[in-house]
């Protein structure tokens, strides 16, 4: 990969990479750090990365960096023995988008990742499998389970409201 290809990768993929990470962890500063770390890792490995596969490399790197940070945060939460308040359905929703965003936030990490890659970023099952190191059938199962959960969640909110 050349320096020009690297610069083009920054131009082409930085916004999409940021949106993907932000949708997953919902923290702008952490998302910016993860994207920056991903490009730093690409720069350190620029000689070994094929210019045609830079998109896959960046998304895979960002995904793994994000998962690592989530795991570290979970460990520190357990170590600090913090208790988080329970979220209930007492919120009054006026927008399906708000309900959907909350529901996506309640999904297990892997289901959220594959769902966001598929429905928000437009990747196909095979590409998602390459990014997440899952088989195509595993990706389909996780997406199916995520969609079933979202459907049940939205129905339960509608019956309460």
TrEMBL record:
Presence of keyword Transcription: yes
UniProt KW Mitochondrion keyword: no
One GO term (biological process): DNA-templated transcription initiation
Chain ranges of the RNA polymerase sigma-70 region domain: 11-75
Molecular function GO terms recorded: DNA binding; sigma factor activity
Keywords: DNA-binding, Sigma factor, Transcription, Transcription regulation
Residue span(s) of domain RNA polymerase sigma factor 70 region 4 type: 98-150
Family that this chain belongs to: Belongs to the sigma-70 factor family. ECF subfamily.
Protein name: RNA polymerase sigma factor
């Amino acid at each position: 990969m050349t320096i020009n290809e690297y610069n083009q990768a920054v131009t082409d993929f930085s916004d999409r990479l940021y949106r993907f990470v932000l949708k997953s962890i919902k923290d702008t500063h952490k998302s910016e750090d993860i994207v920056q770390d991903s490009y730093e890792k690409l720069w350190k490995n620029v000689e070994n990365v094929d210019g045609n596969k830079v998109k896959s490399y960046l998304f895979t790197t960002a995904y793994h960096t994000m998962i690592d940070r989530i795991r570290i945060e979970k460990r520190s939460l357990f170590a600090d023995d913090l208790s988080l308040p329970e979220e209930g359905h007492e919120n009054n929703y006026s927008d399906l988008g708000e309900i959907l965003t909350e529901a996506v936030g309640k999904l297990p990490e892997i289901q959220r990742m594959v769902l966001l890659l598929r429905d928000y970023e437009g990747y196909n099952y095979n590409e998602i499998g390459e990014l997440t190191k899952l088989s195509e059938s595993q990706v389909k199962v996780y997406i199916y389970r995520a969609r079933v959960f979202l459907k049940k969640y939205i129905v339960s909110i509608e019956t309460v409201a």
